Amino acid sequence: MEFSDKLLNRLRGAHSVGVLTGAGISAPSGVPTFRGEDGLWKKFRPEELANYNAFRRNPELVWEWYNWRRKLIKDIKPNLGHYALVDMEKYFSDFAIITQNVDNLHEMAGSANVIGLHGNIMHNKCMDCGKPYEAELVLDDKPPQCPDCGGLIRPDVVWFGEMLPEDAIRQAQELAIRSEVFFSIGTSSQVEPAASLPYMAKGNGAYIVEINIEETPLTPVADEYFNSPVDKVLPELVIALENKK
Ligand code: BV8
After folding, report:
1. Are 40 and 150 part of one and the same domain?
2. 113 φ/ψ sector (left φ>0, alpha ψ -120 to 50, else beta)
3. Measuring CA to CA, which residue among 82, 133, 80, 136 is closest to residue 107?
4. Whose CA is closest to atom 26 on ligand 1?
5. Which H or E run includes 96?
6. Do 134 and 231 fall into the same domain?
7. Is any ligand 1 atom within 6 A of the Cβ of residue 197?
8. pLDDT digits (tens, 9 = 90+) for 126-162
9. In this structure, are 200 and 235 located in the same domain?
């Protein structure tokens, strides 16, 4: 795979590099995406499941859906795309991954700086007292009650209509603003406020690189677009970086 001198020179001179990832980077690991052909939102409507009112209205349905997803992903492993991002860390003094994913695969691969915007599907919390509960303890089909206060236990992810963790979105925006090169990888660029991050980066002079097997609303704005799978592009980019050192 060819990489432009412009991109390699930009990367060679960069200190701060930000990476935004979405479900597409986990697709090669077997994690279903949300909006692709076999995407989760094709079968279910997000407003019926990934939101607070849906859970209040029908906790069993929403809980069952999350357990179905947890069982799907509990044995998955990072892929070459995740590991390539771990390798990329050593070329830059300030490198971090902002992920919309809730599958913990970046951390599992060994990435040092991961900013999780939407939580972790294996974590849960009591809706009333906020006590945390790991998924292993609550994988039965009915949403369990908090032994401490009797409240309902919910997945500790950010649902539609809910605010993102303040420190996570602030760190993500600060990284986007200072990045000299900003990657958008495997995301349909539709969910806010994450989708605005590449635009913030571009507005502050970053070189925008998109990697996606389909075009997105960001594609016309990106400085470079690789219409190719993440687990192909990223390992080859690391080789190119190594050869250009
Ligand atoms: C909020 C966690 C305040 C739970 C998820 C403007 C500003 C702020 C908010 C809004 C706004 N406009 C609208 C809103 C509301 C809403 C929103 O963005 N709606 C959209 C749909 C219009 N945002 C919110 O509610 C956020 N909260 O801002 O609070 C507020 C609230 C209301 C109104 C104003 C302000 C909360 C958003 C978080 C929701 N939680 N998930 C769970 O997982 O169950 S969202 C869900 O979508 C996932 O987290 C997922 O990560 C995320 C984004 O999806 P993608 O990761 O992009 O996945 P997708 O399948 O779409 O795309 C995958 C891509 O990969 C595809 O393009 C495909 O081609 C590509 N691909 C596939 N395979 C490969 C590949 N690419 C390369 N290689 C491959 N092999």
Report:
1. yes
2. beta
3. 82
4. 160
5. strand 94-99
6. no
7. no
8. 999 999 988 665 567 788 899 999 999 999 999 999 9
9. yes
What is the domain-level CATH number for residue 83?
3.40.50.1220
Q: Do 93 and 109 lie in a common domain?
A: yes
- Helix-strand-coil split of the chain, %, nearest 5: 40, 20, 40
Most ligand 1 atoms within 8 A of CB, residue of 191, 216, 228 to mutate: 191
For residue 19, the cross-strand partners are: 97, 183
DSSP code for 51? B
Asked if residue 71 and residue 81 are part of one domain, the reply reads no
**Does pTM top 0.70 for this prediction?**
yes
* 153 shares its domain with 89: no
How many Å lie between the centroid of ligand 1 and the Cα of residue 58?
A: 22
Ramachandran assignment for 52, one of left (phi > 0), alpha (psi -120 to 50 degrees), beta (any other): alpha
* Residues 114 and 196 grouped into a single domain: yes
Domain that residue 95 falls in: 5-30+77-118+164-244
Please check whether residues 138 and 50 belong to one and the same domain: yes
Using CA atoms, how far apart are residues 87 and 234, in angstroms rounded to an integer?
A: 10
Which residues are annotated as catalytic?
118
